[in-house]
Amino acid sequence: MSKTTGQSDLEQRTQSETLLEVRNLKKYYGGDGFFADAPVKAVNDVSFQIKEGETFGLVGESGSGKSTLGRTLIQLETATEGEILFDGTDVTSLSGSELKEWRRNAQMVFQDPESSLNDRMTVGEIIQEPLDAHGWETKQERRQRVVELLSQVGLRKEHYFRYPHQFSGGQRQRVGIARALALEPEFVVLDEPVSALDVSVQAKIITLLEDLQDEFDLTYLFIAHDLSVIRHICDRVAVMYLGKIMELGETEELYNDPENPYTQSLLSAIPRPDPTASRERIMLPGTPPSPRDPPKGCQFATRCPAKIRPPEYEHLDSEVWDAIERFREVIRERSRIELGTSDRVRRRLGLFSRYDDIEEAYEDLFRQLDLPNDVNEPLQTAVEQVKDGRPRDARQHLHNTFGSVCDNERPEFHTVSETGRQSYCHRHMSEYEDVEPVLARRIDEE
Ligand code: ADP
Ligand code: MG
């Protein structure tokens, strides 16, 4: 867990070998079958590399696709599309005995040590299970190995015959770690390994993970929603939103000077040790879109406080602009209702009246505002379309009128620092660089 302590350290890591290379990976759930709903795009085209011996962090709000990505990397889930090169071999194409053999290399520690351990097995049996499954050495050597593992994770020999429920949360997580290490993997996915533990226990487990990494040359993917844990333990970090990586780079650098508007807003929510060095907290408006129906352009476009506006609306009052964005969200929700087959059937049967409150929504959002004609007319058209039972047309109409590059085009990954940090945002393009970020809805304005 070499943190950036000096140039030599950094150089060493830059030169180190790539262990895992992910190329355009997608993992969708459902969506097959003629009448099925749109698939959940849990991981939606991500590419990155993990270097040998590093701790690679993955942060993002709940539901952003972190666990799915972790599970897919170690083939607990089948990728929908893309490649996962592990030491140069694409593991998505392995099957049968090849896959089984490879699995030894890549293990997982789960968030909840409560439910991830089988309560009907003794601790010894739980740790030994993967050894048995792989027919590792002789029975006696397997038992010997378990005793060794118990001691490596700070448990005692006599714990062998106890059951998980006799243990504390921290001890159970030690068992989970011992089990993951049984087959001497190179790569371990740690999925929120300390999120369910008391703070004092968290520190001990983290120290254990760091020690084990040094001792056994492990490479970690460390998943967390807690940004401060990641900062402490990770060499590099990727920030995920709605199935995509928004920013990726050296941990300290990314924390000190985030380039992506999503990272900026995520980090602005962490309480700072020195309150006088105040950074305004950015409150994100609205709710995250459904992963069944992610925005067509940038994933973050519907909530981005730094969204680029179309040139003809650049000078619009930001309150009006905000209200337009919220109204578009309301209509998006209405049109999403249409996506479900059962709802379509219900509408045909005349059981559907969820479109009637659109005028109310319009009133709520715009009553107090002074709307120019070129804003109000398209809004009125959209209201009529929704009342007419055509929310998708309304959505499209507003998209055509108020949509900008952020709504229309997927951003590229831009290299934004000398150390190779990458950020997924249109604002890094020279033509948009000078557009003043809005960063609306700071908490101290409310
Ligand atoms: P995170 O770990 O960041 O909280 P997840 O990877 O668990 O996110 O979930 C990402 C998205 O995929 C969520 O919308 C979740 O509901 C969905 N999802 C996860 N697992 C499944 C599954 N087995 N079937 C259908 N949808 C799933
Ligand atoms: Mg998760």
From TrEMBL:
Pfam families: ABC_tran (PF00005), oligo_HPY (PF08352). GO terms for biological process: transmembrane transport. This is ABC transporter ATP-binding protein. Belongs to the ABC transporter superfamily. SMART domains: AAA. It comes from the Archaea. The keyword ATP-binding applies. One of its GO terms (molecular function) is ATP binding. Keywords: ATP-binding, Nucleotide-binding, Transport. InterPro entries: AAA+_ATPase, ABC_transp_ATP-bind, ABC_transporter-like_ATP-bd, ABC_transporter-like_CS, Oligopep_ABC_C, P-loop_NTPase. Residues 20-267 form the ABC transporter domain. It comes from Halomarina salina.
